[in-house]
Amino acid sequence: MLLHDLAIPIDSVVVVIGANGFIGLETCEKLLQAGYKVRGTVRSVEKYSSFMHDFFDLKWPGKFELVQVVDFEEEGAFDEAFKGAAGVIYTSMPIVFHPDPAKVINQSVKSTINTLEAAAKARVQRYVLCSSSKAVETARYDGTPRRLTVNNYNTESLLKACCGPREETLEWSLDVFSAGRALAELSFWSWIGEKNPPSLPIMLKAALAGEWSSVPMPISYLSDVQDTARLLVAATIKSSISNERIFAYYKHLTWNDLRTRVRAVRPGLVKGEDHPLQEGYLSSVHEPICRAEEILKDIGRAGFTHEDSMLRDFLDTCF
What is the CA radius of gyration of the chain? Predict the structure, then answer.
């Protein structure tokens, strides 16, 4: 990564919440490559310590540490983890699929506010929240053209989860999950405005196997996990990025599009029939994508990683 315009000095400590996750691991690596010290939070140090230290210590000895945070909602849960840190990156909110909106939404909001309060208490200089495309729009595309901007939120799922009749269906649980993500981010921005402080592999395997019952949602936009990590790091360390929503959106592809591309290079991996209800996607996200690409280019990348490269990495890793 090409580094300049730094908001926090090289060798500062940056906390990565959910360091053992898919995005979290990549974010830790990008921070270490950039010259920062990383303190990762996990729910069990005993479970993850060996493989994570083996992964990072050989290249960056003494630069990586793990701390345990079991309950994100517990008051003071992050106080020790954030002590002495210059930056915090919240890469992974708890993922809960449950039909009861109170159980999902309250947890998402409380855990987000908890990290913000702890960061303020520890005088953390930079905080980056990794949200979700489901906070922006619903997964149910109805064929209506839409233009997405950084001001969009998933009000459809919010209204259904908060005001609609409860259903015991997967679609309902997905709406509740999406509402939790949207309200967590709205709560984040509300807290920022009020306090004014001094930022999918399993489903793809199922889609390739034609196991559509295990693929509960259509794809919105794809991006390489390394690009997502780069944007998270850039948002943390670049002084020119502040109070800004950044869309790690690269390109929209359907599950059938991905099956077609994999079939061309590894035909034996694609089984069963294509998805019978291939929904169109008409949302336009031109401006946010251009902004994300601008940031990637500013740190020395050519732009987003091409989908063919993403698929090659996925196939090499998972098959």
Answer: 20
